[in-house]
Structure formats: C-alpha cells, structure tokens
C-alpha cells in the first residue's frame, strides 16, 4: 500500500537561503540535498535519500575525481600536460573529465561495453578518449577493463588513477559525504545503505560513522551475480554471474572495499532494482540510475524487517538521465526479460 505524499510548500526550497553564485561548476560538487521518502511502505522506519545525482557530473563520483586528482598533483604523480588513465563504469570518468580536461591533461578512459550509451556519449562530448572493452571477461583477462587501463597507463607513461585501490577515493567520502549525512540527519542515523563498485563510498562513510556514531550500521546492497553479499553473509566466494545494473557489484573484493564495516548484506535482482528505480520516479519524482534502484530495494527490505523505529539513509548514486535508453525504456526492460508485460504502473506495484 502506498502512503499519500504530504502537501508541499509552494515556495521552492521552503524559503532556505539561495546558494550564492560560484566561479566554477566544480564548486558545486558535494553539499547535496537529502529527501525523505514518504510514499513507500517503510515499516516502522523513516527513509531518507541523499541526491548525489545533483552533483554537476550527475553522480557521487565527482567527489572522488576532485580528491584523486588533487592528491596526484600534490605528490607529483601528475605533472602539467600529463596523461590520466582510468577504468570506469562511466561516472568516475566523467568526474575526472570535468576536473582534468579544463586543466590541460589528456584523459583515456576504459569503459566496459555494457555501460549505457548516454554515459559514453557524455564522455566523448566532454573530450575524453573513450576505449570500450568487453564486459563478459573477468580480472586477469587482457580485455578486462581494469587490466586494460593498467596496461594503457604503462604504455603511455600516464597516471593510472585506479579508484579501486586509490586511498583518496574513500578519503573523499570520509571527509565530505559522511560528515554531510551526519549533519543533515542531526547526528541521528541508525543505518546507511550503500553499494560497492570500488568500495570508496562504503569504506569512507563507514569509517567516518564508526568514529562519530558507532550505533550506525552499514548495510550493503549488492546485485545478484556479484560475489560481495554472499561473501559477507556466508564467508564463501561464489562464481560471479552477470547483471544489468551499472556501477555496483564485483567479481573480486577491491582493496578499497572494507567489508568488515558491513553488518547486513542483501542480494537484489535486476528486476527488483529496475522496479525500485522506476517506482522512485513515478512516486517521488526522483530520476535515479539503476544502482540507486538496487540501494532503494535493499533499504526498503531493511526498513520492513525492523521492529523498532529507525532512521535509515541511502543514496541516489547517479541520475536516471544516464539510463533513459535502458532502465526507463520499456522495450529494453522487456527485452532483458525483466518484466513479462509492460502496462502502466505494473513496475511500481512490485515494490510499492
Ligand atoms: N553507483 C554508480 C552508478 C557508480 O558508478 C558507482 C561507482 N562505480 C557506485 C554506485 C559505487 O560507488 P563506489 O565506487 O564508491 O563503491
């Protein structure tokens, strides 16, 4: 059963002070808003989402692009006019492009071919050198995107960013995303639901909250086929499968993913993720990407399992604009076998 949305103010922003003009879109990274979801059945819990989709590059990855480039400039790994190489699902690449290209760096991005065409077009439009590679091979294969990125960096003498092991990635979340959530929720947060791609979000936010709010639990939302949730729940490493959701789920444990921070892990199917992303748009007017659907589905499951009131936070990791040809395209969703028959509202019924 859906709850009715409350009446909203006629004044955008409810009269909060308007942000002052800034001199660069990079100054708009971070300090993202939080919305309470009021139309979903959240059991005894209150559920909040932090809109990382409102960063200028449309994703949570803008934060780490800033910190990883600043760290490499500071310690001399990156010199003026140098080449930057990264393996990315797209969002880290876009963040890097925004920071690096105006400064005159060259940027080579290796992107697996399952990623949406919107993300690849955006990267090419901004001026990155995008090399797509196979999505159906794992670590150790020469065409695997991370191995290919490392190889290109070696051949070109470029700086391999390597978000999967770069400590400036979790540090960005430990120093910005975590403190923002704490402040926006008045220091009272029972659980934070995150996904793991590189592990930066989990480890950064998790480390911050372990310090300032030990009661806060980190909850992992993981696509079916990824090894991470089964590893947390059973200690066993499964044979990885494939999944349609982009940016989260892994076939290995990235050095940046501190899974010891996770208290509860959920495996979420593509069908559930896409239904949740579509319901978030239909019910709340929030256009979010596929990984945000996974996080929302896990957050709803977590909330409904609780017996006591809790304050739960999750993230809109990126904007659904990046997936209009996929998650929000009925034909693609049907072709993937994710829903038998499309009719108005039926995806919403799966989660609402
Ligand atoms: N969602 C999306 C859309 C992403 O691109 C990523 C990063 N690949 C994540 C979530 C996961 O974040 P992290 O790398 O910090 O684990």
TrEMBL record:
Which BP terms in the Gene Ontology apply to this protein? cysteine biosynthetic process from serine
Location of the region described as Disordered in the Swiss-Prot/TrEMBL record: 1-22
Q: Has keyword Metal-binding?
A: no
UniProt keyword annotations, A-Z: CBS domain, Pyridoxal phosphate
Q: Where is the composition biased (Polar residues)?
A: 1-12
Q: Which sequence ranges form a coiled-coil region, renumbered to this chain?
A: none
Q: Which cofactor does it need?
A: pyridoxal 5'-phosphate
Q: Would the keyword Metal-binding be found if you checked this record's keyword annotation?
A: no
Q: Which GO terms describe its molecular function?
A: transferase activity, transferring alkyl or aryl (other than methyl) groups
| Similarity section | Belongs to the cysteine synthase/cystathionine beta-synthase family.
Q: What name does the UniProt record give this protein?
A: Cysteine synthase B
